[in-house]
Amino acid sequence: MHTLMGCFCLKKLGHKPGYEAPINLASETPFTVNEVEALYDLFKKLSSSIIDDGLIHKEEFQLALFKNSNKQNLFADRIFDLFDIKHNGVIEFGEFVRSLSVFHPNAPEADKIAFLFRLYDLRQTSCIEAEELKEMVTALLCENNMSLSEDVVDLIVEKTMMEADTKRDGKIDDEEWKEFVKKNPSIIKIMTLSDLKELTLAFPSFVMNSGVSDLQQPVKN
């Protein structure tokens, strides 16, 4: 009965399946209600760029990043996989907001460190091996239109493994990663997007038409 009512309400409000109320998402993330509403505007554009079904497919995700839905990039694939929390091949609005929240300036540093660890853990073995590190470094260089010789990349990987792999077992586990980042805080700079704090400035119409005032929002802990 609740499911039927939920579907009826979504249709009545013009929202597609997978939509979650901004006030609920704001209570779980560093975003304000206005910012979540702004993100919904962005989400609607991304999720209708190829298939208008209220979900972001990998091709739409790649199109947003590269202006090309067919371009293959390991970095983009990993980000998509981490955003796809339900592992069903698409990104729903709630997943989009919760995943983006880790990049918010006010998100806990521990969440940023954990997300970055999972990004590098390509084989999902709860540890980062040298080959995985090399693959991600190469992908990140490609993403930023930078090119380094393989010898230089190997040197970066070797130096990182030497410093981070304190147990000398050929891999970096979760605890070693935390210690490594603590000594090299600049590593997680890519995990903070300052623009996320200014979403309401980018989408002023949502600020003016917000159904819930920021003063009425749940208090963040």
TrEMBL record:
In its keyword annotation, does this UniProt entry include GTP-binding?
A: no
Q: Does the keyword Transport apply?
A: no
Q: Some GO term, biological process aspect, for this entry: which one?
A: calcium-mediated signaling
Looking up InterPro entries in the UniProt record yields: CNBL1-10 (IPR045198), EF-hand-dom_pair (IPR011992), EF_hand_dom (IPR002048)
- Cross-referenced SMART domains: EFh (SM00054)
Q: Name one GO cellular component term.
A: membrane
State the superkingdom: Eukaryota
Q: How does it assemble?
A: Homodimer. Interacts with CIPK.
User: What is this protein's function?
Assistant: Acts as a calcium sensor. CBL proteins interact with CIPK serine-threonine protein kinases. Binding of a CBL protein to the regulatory NAF domain of a CIPK protein lead to the activation of the kinase in a calcium-dependent manner.
Q: Which family does it belong to?
A: Belongs to the calcineurin regulatory subunit family.
Spell out the protein name for this chain.
Answer: Calcineurin B-like protein
* Lineage of producing organism: Eukaryota, Viridiplantae, Streptophyta, Embryophyta, Tracheophyta
Q: What gene is behind this protein?
A: LOC107890707
